[in-house]
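Sample intake sheet
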Amino acid sequence: MQSKVRVWTRRQVEDIAVLNVHGDLSFSQGSAELGLKITELLENGVRHILLDAQHLEHIDSSGIGQLIKSFTSVTRRGGEMKLLHPNQTLQQILIVTKLTRLFEIFDNEETALESFPEPGPPPDTENTEPL
């Protein structure tokens, strides 16, 4: 079965990658693709992720799980992961599950980019657990 999700880096500003997600983020479609893309970015030195969810059509518990796993992977590497343009359904899920405590949510890309810390030396990752 071919996935109906597309995940790509739309733009990179210093050590911040703006990722677009189009389609479904669910058990059968998309969760793995998001995880692979985040891992690829982290391995290439990106520390911060801004996930643009404007075109996310559907998300299930597996997709939410992948968001949490991705957030954890990014923060273990000393970075931050934030959400941009979540649709009303995703916003409601984040509120009900209290994940708004984890994710900063933005409606404006420039404001979101400005909220990340200034680029600096990479954190010491030798003492962190493997992903």
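Comment: Residues 6-113 form a domain with the Transcription Regulator spoIIAA fold (CATH 3.30.750.24). The beta strands are 6-13, 16-25, 48-59, 80-84, 105-106.
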